[in-house]
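FIELD: query
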Amino acid sequence: MNLCNPNTIRALMEEAGIAFRKDYGQNFLIRPDIPEEIAERCADDADRLILEIGPGIGCLTAELATRYRKVVAVEIDRGLIPVLGKTLADFDNVTVLNEDIMKVDLRALVDRYADGCPVSVAANLPYYITTPILMYLLESGVRFSTITVMVQNEVAARLAAAPGSADYGAITAVLGYYGRVNRLFRVPAGCFLPAPKVDSAVIRMDLYPTPLYTPKNEAFFFGLIRAAFDMRRKTLVNAVTAKYSHLTKEQVSDALVKIGHSPTVRGERLSTEDFVRLSDELA
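FIELD: result
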């Protein structure tokens, strides 16, 4: 069964009596080479559990199942569950859960299904909830090896941006605390049914197996990043002292000089490591 064929997709949904749901950001791939490439590049070895978020009708799920030991697919739309039961019937290494990923106990899920093997994530994320899902995964305490997601092209540019670039923002600096983000390839809007209004792109995040950075005060470190980008047009000195009234401009300026930056620098120029060092100087 070609799960990327538009006629097949429509027939499966008509048989199940369901329609595409805009509230879930449903856009299904109609080019088979794309789920093949995502599956091929989302992990480095076959002996692992893949947590898939939003399998849709299962085109990526099937590719994952042929390459990896176990796949757990979490689908929020209960109307798609019988469709997935049909399209994935030939795979005995796939478990489909009708759940909202934002409400899933990820530690319990991994404990139940991973059997001690590494865990990676693969997903085609709805545009409106990309950042909340990524942060939910990263803050779960689960040691994922890799997270490979398809997101809106502009979002992918932000997630993988370099310090000082126009796309660099708070989410970029935060992700850099957990791992390295690489943009893999672009996916034109015409590759989906129905076609969205914008192109997408696939990114892969390789998480650090052990923390690369250990700020003295993690909450303060994240707070500095928020302060820097909440007032992006201001110098970092002004942005930080506006948020933290107990800090003086002289203190922040001196700390910036100690880590090798000008007192007039803006937050967008600082890397994740710079924010860690600055937070340690000011903590």
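FIELD: remark
The CA atoms of residues 122 and 148 lie 5 Å apart.
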